Amino acid sequence: MTTNLRWLSLLFTAFAATVAQAADDVPALLKAADRYRTGQDNLQVETLVSVTNRDGSPDKERRYTVFVQAQHKSLVLMRSPAEAGQKVLMLGDDFWLLMPGSQRPLRITPSQKLLGDASTGDIATMSWADDYSGSVVGDEPCLPDGEAACRHLSLQAARKGVTYQRIELWLGKTRHEPIRAELYVQSDKLAKQARFVFDKPAAPTQVTEMVLLDQLSNHKETRVRYVSRQGKVVPEAWLNPMFLARNPALE
Amino acid sequence: MARRPSWRRRGAGVLLLACAVGVASPAEVDSSGELRLQPAAVDLNEAGPLAAANSLVPGIAPIAGSGLRIEAELRGSWHPAATRPWLSVLAADVLLAADRPEGGPTDNASRINELHAASDFGAWQFGVGKKIVGWDVGYGFRPNDVVEQERRRTLLPQTPEGRPLLEAEHFAAEQAATLVWVNPNHAGDPVDAQRGALENALAARWYTREGAADWHLFARWGEHTRGSIGAALAFVATDELELHASARALQRHDGWTLDAQAGLAPVASNPWSQATLGSTSQWLVGASWTGQQQQSVLLEYWYDGTTLSDDDWSRWMARNQALAAFGALPGLPPGPVTAAAGNLAWQTTPLDVPNLRRDNLFVRLAWQPDHWLLSADALITPADRGRIVTLGVQWQGDRWRFNAVLRAYGGPDGALLAQLPQRRVGVLGAAWAF
Fold first, then answer.
1. Checking DSSP bridges between strand A73-78 and strand A87-91, what pairing results, if any?
2. Is this prediction's ipTM beyond 0.95?
3. Fewer CB within 10 Å, N side or C side of chain B?
4. Helix, strand, coil shares, percent, chain B, to 5
């Protein structure tokens, strides 16, 4: 009897240690959180970005077709009348822009990527697991004045080309769905606060909207709405910078 | 004089596209466009050969002044089913435009910018038709833009007119190779009918990417300018700094020459003409820096050996002075005065080039807060300290875009840029995208 109890106690301790380790396994937590945003490595996302002023009045609206591909590759096609024909290609830490008038792909710096109406990083980056590493800070209320508990992760960029150098991220404790985030730029200034809206609040399966509140300059609210997502592997040629000048058929 | 396609040919092209689009399902058609209104005000120069000509014989050489331009640019592309790789895209960009100079008749400036078909065989892509093919890495000047030869530093952004061409491209993950036969319609034409960007030519580009660097190699074979080779590099040095360089060596080039018989006295016909000249080179180095607050600085220096030399311009100045002095001689009969004025007007002929001086320095500052784009740039010619200063402001909304641009030409009295017919140009622009 005493031997059996000892074995049971050992087993329980090992199980508890495994659970605790899994709960603090940041890559696993980020992979779980990413599943709510992408669901797969290669996909085509139709995105609608609406910006409202601090007083709630509408400021602007932009539409994008984003091809998010494995290995940090993204192709963003601007679809709104004001930007029709513009394209941005992101291959890891390297970026290119095509303006429709010139039909000439142009190499741009990470800083130039931030120019324009929306930060392309906000709409083309759908994965944290591959871009960030960090640690679990602990369990905290999801919202400063809320009751639900969240897992608080502090993340540092693991590669050069990401838009935000540091992210403070709060995930649901049970399902690890992203609840909110604080996004910091290179100078470690808080650039944006983000919160995530789900398809089914009671049993979320997918992020349908990311709401960004600017903290640096204009304090505008940007809603990035994922209108549709579908699996799509684009031909290799589409991810060649010189291919930007061509006009492929989009399904 | 450039040969322009007839309205019948342009109309046939538009009709062909309309028929193709008409039989396509709406899901296969992508279309967009823009309506633009652009009033311009011009402050004429009181110096320079054209001003001198009009001073001798008022009105002998009318100068383009203020006016209004109305444009509608329509873009469309038709993507048939993917099972037809031999016709993957049929695309067009049509510009309907009218210029109304102050006090003058309305001029129709409509044209087809692009009308081309493409085939998609995966890594191999083919194209045929009138198309914009833009190459090279610079902003103010692009020595290796050997197909399109786009005019740079325009007051307002505009879609250039494409070139008739046949194109074959191959794409790998990090390399691309392009072969273009441009202006095949000019093959065998007299040399004067295919000067500059109109020349029948074969052009090739090879591109490779190595981390933060883009490398380009170029080669071109023109029917009368023969061979040229070039190379270009764009390199992202830091998150904020980009460096670029481009160079080209030409076996022959088109350029302005003054009739050797012209001398300093008036002659009976325009002594300036385009000719095929010898070997030369063009190069550019540049850097751009973009800060976190969306401010940017661009600095470029370039050399263009295809334009007249400093000695040629000194002779041009001397001829201007001699003609003006001759025309102002007391008691000269009207005939010789008119001849002097006409010759002074012809002296503006070689001013129609992308670069007046061979050495040029360009700096551009821009700030892009939210809806706004504020910019200031200056082109400086160190040889004579001439300058072109441009200030611009743009507001961009969901559909509306408004621009205001002011450009001033100047420098010391001897500077070429101070001799141009216009002293200041201001343009307002309103555009509505759909």
1. antiparallel
2. no
3. N
4. 20, 45, 35
What stretch of H or E contains B205?
strand B201-210
B2 belongs to a structural domain: no
B176 chain-A contacts, CB cut-off 8 A: 240-243
Is B102 within a domain?
yes
Q: What count of Cα atoms within 13 Å lies in the side-chain half-sphere of residue A246?
A: 31
Q: Report CB contact under 8 Å: B75, A85.
A: yes
Interchain pair B172, A217: CB under 8 A: no
| Domain-located, residue B1 | no
Q: How far apart are CA A62 and CA B369, in angstroms?
A: 17
Number of C-beta neighbours around residue A184 at 10 A: 20
Minimum Cα–Cα distance from B117: chain A residue: A247
Of the candidates B137, B157, B370, the beta carbon closest to that of A218 is on B370
CB contact under 8 A, B294 and A249: no
Domains and CATH numbers, chain A: 26-243 (2.50.20.10)
For residue B240, the chain A residue with the least C-alpha distance is A111
Residues B71 and B159: their CA atoms lie apart, in Å, by 12
**Per the CB < 8 Å rule, is B137 touching A107?**
yes
The per-residue pLDDT for range A17-70, each reduced to its tens digit, is: 444 455 578 999 999 999 998 777 899 999 999 999 888 899 889 999 999 998
Which among B89, B91, B242 has the least Cβ separation from residue A109? B242
Closest approach of B38 to chain A, Cα-based (Å): 18
Closest-CA residue to B140 (of B428, B403, B375, B383):
B375
pTM for the whole structure: 0.89
| Kind of pairing between the strands at B280-290 and B372-381 | unpaired
Residues in B closer than 8 angstroms to A108, CB to CB, are 236, 242
A·B CB contacts under 8 A:
139
Q: Which domain holds residue B420?
A: 7-433
What is the domain count for chain B?
A: 1
Report which of A231, A197, A217, A229 is spatially closest to residue A119, judged by C-alpha positions. Answer: A217
- Write the CATH number for B46: 2.40.160.10
The pLDDT, as a whole number, for residue B26 is: 52
Among the partner-chain residues B207, B288, B292, the one whose CB lies closest to the CB of A185 is B292
Closest residue, chain B, to A101 (C-alpha): B159
User: Looking at the domain assignment, is residue B147 inside a domain?
Assistant: yes
pLDDT at residue number B3: 44
A82-129 per-position pLDDT tens digit = 888 899 999 988 999 998 887 899 999 988 776 554 567 777 777 899
Looking up tokens 């850097």, which residue turns up? B287
Name chain A contacts of B174, Cβ cutoff 8 Å.
240
The two beta strands, B295-304 and B280-290, are antiparallel
